[in-house]
User: Fold these one by one.
Assistant:
Number 1:
Amino acid sequence: MRGQWLYLYRAVDSEGNTLDFLLNETRSTRAAKRFFRNMLGNSHVTPPRVINVDKNPAYIGAVDDLKDDGQLPPECQRRPTKYLNNIVEQDHRCVKRQVRAAMGYGSYPTAWRTIRGIEADHQIRKGQINGVGKSDIIGQKQFIHGLFGLR
């Protein structure tokens, strides 16, 4: 965004379903904790058994603090292993391609709204919408038209 780097936090379950995402200016313990709190607060998310993350040290404090607060079960493991994070990275590839094609954003609100739309489109294509299958192109089109009031 105007030459400033932003970080896109993403949570994906073991089946590849997107749970939540957050665009933030920093990659700190505070930002990671905020992301995990928001994700765990969603009604469709169950407390995880294992959290696979990259080796960013911010996750250590965030996961430990959430366990201390009781928002994560004490038996939840944090695995900072690069290769176990492949589900997230592969899912993130489709989003990155569209963000890179945009060649930057002028402001944070513009970036946030655009990435929210890209993530929603990605979830629709993955079949994460009730009643609309992964390969049901007509159903996906009708769903989007219903969202935006198109004919």
Number 2:
Amino acid sequence: MTSELVLERVRLPEAAAFPEVRGLRGPLTCLGEARFGMLAGVVGAARNCYETALRYTLDREQFGEPLAGFQLTQRKLADLVVEVNRAALGALQISRLKDAGRLHHHQVSFGKMANVRAALEVARTARTMLGGSGITLGYPVFRHMANLETVLTYEGTEEMHALSIGQAVTGIPAFR
């Protein structure tokens, strides 16, 4: 959910500050944790879209056959399962790096950027596979698609993640 929160003339006593946090370290650490959560969370949305498309195409018939029996549908299902599992493997590897204390912020950017892209593509493809039902609330795909469009923007836009990755690759910061 996205909303606006405005605080005006708010004063806090010095005792309310975290003593171990200086400068932007606190907020940026929180931001990194949120991004990490998203890179894993979007895999769940993608998986749900894939599973919905699979069930729908197995149940829905056209010309006396399930939609899942058609070549183009099977191609789309194959693409979806590859993207979902590739994103899951990326999230797993990044989680292992985090558990080992070897995770860098540009790796989180890589995971969020790659997995949100993959999840959006899965959601968009799954929506087409459901035909007109893909834009109804009777199936979760369109809701996931709208949420993923939001995730693409918050906790750092794709462009910001690209700059973080670019700096890691080149050693040159381009944040201007």
Number 3:
Amino acid sequence: MGIKDWPADERPREKLLERGAASLTDAELLALFLRTGVAGRSAVDLARELLDRFGGLSRLCLAERDQICEAPGLGPAKYAQLKAVMEMAARALKEDMKSGDALSSPAAVRRYLSLLLKDKPHEEFWAVFLDAQNRAIQAEMLFRGTLTQTSVYPREVVKRALAHNAASLILAHNHPSGVAEPSQADRLLTQALRQALALVEVRVLDHFVVAGAGGVSFAEAGLL
């Protein structure tokens, strides 16, 4: 039975309009994106199969082009649409982050960094450079590593902070292992960066460790 034959309050589009997007399951959201199913399977059935195939919604959204194009019901056009949706979300979060005080609205910064870093298969080290009013100047990936580690050089971080004329910054990196707890190496690195940046009067306001859908803030954990 196709979706059009379902009761009205069970159809994803009608359900979204009546109750809001948050009321939909991952499969229902993906079904709206797909719009149609394939022979013998509704869009929701196909969405469930795709979520099983990729291991969840976030992994599907971050999949490589070849993986998307080879999956049933997808292809180059859907890959392009998916990447456009992801980029729109990232730009919207970036606008939120840059429009206010990073200290008074840390959630916007965290959402942006989480979207950038969650489910990456390798470690990346980022910095959000801020002006004297704590407004974001630029977010920039500074170093890229392997599955388990990234080499970070304080001198290069200082150079980038000076290049942006930053008054302060927020650091962030991901743990592909899925364990957000900062390691001893993370703590030592953060202290080394604080000391190096203090020499040029740039403050480290926070260091986020992103792991999957979660994360740890050094500032909130009392580690700064």
Number 4:
Amino acid sequence: MPIYQLTKRIKFPAVENAEASGLLAYGGDLSTKRLIKAYESGIFPWYSKGEPIQWWSPDPRFVLYPDELKVSVSMRQIIRSGKFKISFDRAFEDVIVACQTIRRKDQDDTWITDEMKDSYCILHNEGIAHSVEVWNGKKLVGGLYGISRGSCFCGESMFSLESNASKAGFIELVNRLNQLKFKMIDCQVYTEHLRKLGARSVKREKFIKQLKLSLEDNLIEGKWNNHSAFKQNQKAS
């Protein structure tokens, strides 16, 4: 399959044209319109500094259905201890900067470029990108961010400065989204961490069909910290 070069036109090739690796196209920009079009088409950007923007749609897709969340006994104990407090859309830029700068094992560089950070901050200001913050006292010790479209949340990245911090934030996010009747959380590609929490691989064709259905829902708009569903009980539960 050829790798398509995007033009200024806000259009993507069909996801079935992606390479076996999931790479579909390159080029274009990270404008709000293009990013929204990408996520609503089952496509996301993923590239490193110095590379052209690359657009991906892997097959299979890694997905967590909120009612399939798995929480271990030990994690339930940590959550009940009240060690962590959770907030939503309170410190988006701090979260994405932490995801950008905190190195993980076997990772030499970040795929969150400054251009990507700036673009997602714009999406956040428009109520499209959202963050989950995990606090230990007044210190931000973990978090994650992603894109919300219809009843689908597309997770992008997470960070943790303390053991289980990001996991606690993710669990609380899934619980809140489940209460709001979100249909799925797009985890994009396989990780063992998310598999243990209940995520599983689904065929891209099935994922795209489910995504289209989720886009028909209009469950919540704007920044999450303005909604009662995300204000109550700001402690991991």
